[in-house]
Amino acid sequence: MPLLTLLKHAHVYAPDDLGIRDILIAGRQIVAIERDLHLAGNVPMDVIELDGRPTFPGLIDQHVHMAGGGGEGGFHYRTPEISLSHVTAAGVTTAVGVLGTDGVTRSTRELLAKAFALDFEGITTYIYSGAYQVPTRTLTGMPRSDLVLIEKVIGVGEIAIADSRSSHPDENEIAELVSEAYVGGLLAGKAGVVHFHMGDEDDHLDLLIRVAQRTGLPRTTFVPTHLNRNPGLLEASIEWGKRYGMCDITSGIRPDAHDHVSVKPSKAIVKLLDGGVEPHVITMSSDSNGSSPIFDERGKLVAMGIGSIATLWEETVDLIREEHLPISLAVSFATANVARLLKLRHKGRLKAGCDADLIVCDHQFRIERVYAKGRLMVEGGKPVVFGTFEDAGRVPGSPGSKSESGHAGERVERAALGPSSEDEDDFPDRDERQERSRRRHFCC
């Protein structure tokens, strides 16, 4: 595969509208964006003619239950891990992993391992340390030391407040937690945010307002999410956004057959803007792979869904097509604004020196191509790179495989991955391998 890729005649939204430009990608970085690029000499290169197709930064989703979530309603409601191709097909090239309600059977270690796996497979990943409860679940015993010592940890969360599933922390507990995150961020040169899950209780953002007033910490430290959960919370968010801090709208929370209360994400963003909230403090995330329980007035679970990462681009497109926001503004809520908040200096923009994370769309804003760290992940609207075990039909013993398990008399081979042809052969020779196999057996 050539190390250079030249995208010709892209309509670049960086997210600012740059008009028609050529984009040169070398390895994982954008090295040039100019009007008419030509490279001298016989340089191996992929040249892709885009004919004016809209081209955007890859989306940054700061709220993904990448290792699964849920559990409300019983063990069978634990949601699955997310797959690489689900992320990239949705135009997301950077994801921040979170835990949620279940900090018992789900762990921050498990979340970190999943983040490493997705990063190896092709996207950029980070995590928040913690879960709903306070004191929260950490890796090292302290949120501050998680931020300082673990590279992928860029904040704390999601911490639940104003929700029946929270631990109902008081003002002192939240002040201490936010201070821990802030100082950890200072020491590590990271964002050090606290990502707050906002529930349905009537006090809305009151607890955060009291803590913000008391501590005087930077307003970017507080990141409440799910603010479109109900009209009352969204209304309270307008004053919060104007005076104190960030406002994160959840693309996966929107009205449906069971949810008659939430505000459609694209309309929620317009309401914040109309209320006087500055655009740069508004972000949008998906809550992907988290459970979406619906409770009646008695607290009984009546329906359960699962968040979709695809909603992040869908709601971005609705901001353009239905709400008639300028394209560059609509795209910024899931790109440049998030990168600025989380101090991801090489993400969220298309410019020389940034990571080559791009979305190429047709003129109806349907995703055609996605590049993550310079690698083509989606082509023709379909994933072309998959996670390690996504093609389950090739794994012997899995449902749908040719050697499906559960049939008497059939031999089922053990699933295994072979060594890369690019790696040195570190497998033992035949005699040593046979000797090892006589000494011990390995099983899962």
UniProtKB/TrEMBL annotation:
<dbReference type="GO" id="GO:0008798">
    <property type="term" value="F:beta-aspartyl-peptidase activity"/>
</dbReference>
<feature type="compositionally biased region" description="Basic and acidic residues">
    <location>
        <begin position="404"/>
        <end position="414"/>
    </location>
</feature>
<dbReference type="InterPro" id="IPR006680">
    <property type="entry name" value="Amidohydro-rel"/>
</dbReference>
<dbReference type="InterPro" id="IPR050378">
    <property type="entry name" value="Metallo-dep_Hydrolases_sf"/>
</dbReference>
<dbReference type="Pfam" id="PF01979">
    <property type="entry name" value="Amidohydro_1"/>
</dbReference>
<dbReference type="InterPro" id="IPR032466">
    <property type="entry name" value="Metal_Hydrolase"/>
</dbReference>
<protein>
    <submittedName>
        <fullName>Beta-aspartyl-peptidase</fullName>
        <ecNumber>3.4.19.5</ecNumber>
    </submittedName>
</protein>
<dbReference type="InterPro" id="IPR011059">
    <property type="entry name" value="Metal-dep_hydrolase_composite"/>
</dbReference>
<keyword id="KW-0378">Hydrolase</keyword>
<feature type="region of interest" description="Disordered">
    <location>
        <begin position="389"/>
        <end position="444"/>
    </location>
</feature>
<dbReference type="InterPro" id="IPR010229">
    <property type="entry name" value="Pept_M38_dipep"/>
</dbReference>
<feature type="domain" description="Amidohydrolase-related">
    <location>
        <begin position="261"/>
        <end position="376"/>
    </location>
</feature>
